[in-house]
Amino acid sequence: MEKKWFTISVYSENNVGLLNRISGIFLKRHINIESLNVSKSEIEGVSKFTVVVFTTEDWTRKIVMQIEKQIEVIKAFYHTDEETIYQESALFKIGSHLLFDERQIQNIIKDSHAQIVTVSREFFVLAKTGKREEIEEMYRLLKPYGIMQFVRSGRITVTKAEMKISSLLAAMEK
Amino acid sequence: METLKDKKMKKSADTRMKISGAEAIIHCLLAEGVDLIYGYPGGAIMPVYDELYKFQDQLTHVLTRHEQGAAHAAQGYARATGKVGVAMATSGPGATNLVTGLADAQIDSTPMVCITGQVPRHLLGSDAFQETDIIGISTPVTKWNYQVTKASEIPEIMAKAFYIAKSGRPGPVLVDITKNAQFDELEFEYKPCTQVRSYQPYPKPDMADLQEAAALINTAKKPYIVYGQGVILGKAEEELKALVEKSGIPAAWTILGLSAMETDHPLNVGMVGMHGNYGPNVLTNECDLLVAIGMRFDDRVTGDLDTYAKQAKIIHFEIDPAEINKNVKVDVAVLGNAKESLKLLLPLIKENKHEAWHSEFKKKQEEEYEAVIKADLYPQKPGLTMGEVIGSINKASGDNAVIVSDVGQHQMIACRYARFTQTKSNITSGGLGTMGFALPAAIGAKMGAEDREVVAIIGDGGYQMNIQELATIFQNKTAVKIVVLNNEHLGMVRQWQELFFEKRYASTVMTNPDFVKIAEGYHLKARRVEERSELDEAVKEMMNSKEPYFLEVRVEKEDNVFPMIPSGASVSDIRLK
Q1: Which of A51, A138, B8, B409 is the most exposed place for a label (fewest CB within 10 A)?
Q2: What is the tens place of the pLDDT at every residue in B382-401?
Q3: Which residues belong to any copy of the Thiamine pyrophosphate enzyme N-terminal TPP-binding domain (chain B) (predicted)?
């Protein structure tokens, strides 16, 4: 079966040990976590894990079933890129002198719609939100000038289809 | 003067009272109907042991000689009774010694609650004496685990632990309790847990799935049932039998399904799997419908998946959604508890006999009898076989003993030849294959089913992995019957070395101690059998004993277990020799 990018979304109770339990499921099957983000969800007290993997649909489905089996997991889903709206964020720390010495940098900032978060005498910080490829393109363009620090966040995703967690929770509580 | 007992009685009468966390743990256990636990004391769990001392008339604590023994004893108790087994240990090494038992209970779906002590909250993460991250260590081998750091959490967490351990597909739960939480006081009130909102243990069988399943069953020419432990855990023994009898479908057991239906039932055709019976394996690849009930298509059952039952439609009755299409792709999945599902299925099933199909099983059975069984059970040459020992135990027990087997050749032989008339009678480490399981598990089984004969069948290898539990047996006068089938080898590994590693017997020869003397050293009645002529009489003497009894049987050193599906081969390629 063909390998693809899948986004796994996990709605769970907010529990200390759960991240360990969930990451163990990937570990056991040697599936690399390409990106991971944990945050609160649209529902009070419910956490949301967003995990990106590059593997077959069959493996993804099996992993999702194993995740859903964990006691504190409310529901887990998986989606292809086409089924989701997704973004990542990145921060670039760059020497301030380049702003003046290299005119091309200003063009890169403008063209990529990046934001200048802060500027100091020594460095300035660019923030860029977008698809992985866009961030990578910006990285490629900036690299020749010297990047002091770079960091990219995990993918965050909302699905085009409804996830119905609230009604599921209501049914569970009945 | 108010005695300790009066005080306790008064306290039990109150629903709300201020007590220590340690005492609360005892009240939680009592509220869950626990009257017997296994364990081993140590620093971080001492406050609980102090309470156990005060409550010893209501709650028996059995001191094993190793925490692994405590875990397996709790498992044996759970498997024999269907109730939750409880094991307790201190922090650090006490806790890590439970891990093998947890893993075993996890893979064999055994309801168990383990309670471990932990260093006080303020020392957590400081590498304190006997501190270990047992939550991190036990996460992959528990259904759920939790670290309690405040006394006030104890009632709710204990209630949740028992509910999770026993509901749905059962499994082990570990509750780690810091020492400060044991000492601190709380307002005690106990409410049993009846639901956890993110946890749906009992999926409802879908009528449309059941109808589809029934249509397949009613029209199949060569349908075949394979049943597993889900039948026993789901208390669906009667429903299974009713289904088999009404549909006339030949039924085979997995190692953990064994004893769900009486062995001698005419529609029972034997065991599937690596050392299962010939017909049940070969005919898996000739049936046109495979009905899997409460089993999980373990690789020891299926062999090579690419050639497993490819010609057949497959129906899977299963409580755990994660098992559906995990190993084998199925045509119809009926989610739900086996009892409920089979009850709903039964009225939809047409009566049938499938006589011609049964005769195919019979033919294969005769082939296996000539090639293997005859020589196993009624050997003509000198040298005792493991099979004839099991036969002798069947005879002496009237097919009515609880058989607790360890792991290896003797286990396969026991599961092939032991006969059962009651459910929950075959206790063995199936999924994990834990050597050292049987001796402590037999202790738990006997304490859980006191009115039954419990016979532990163990190899000379596994026996020495938890031999220290002989002391537990002696101290508690637990009348288990211990049979060690001594072939002076790690027999199963030796068999593989003979067949697949060109007879390079690396580290499988055992120079053993005098097992009879050792048993006698533990004050047990003990006997050794070396001749066929003594066997039946010795087994009878053992079975008639009211006390624990140790029997060593010297068996052939280099016998092999057949049939055998070589690892990774197809069920069709099962070897008779």
Answers
A1: B8
A2: 999 999 999 999 999 999 99
A3: 20-135
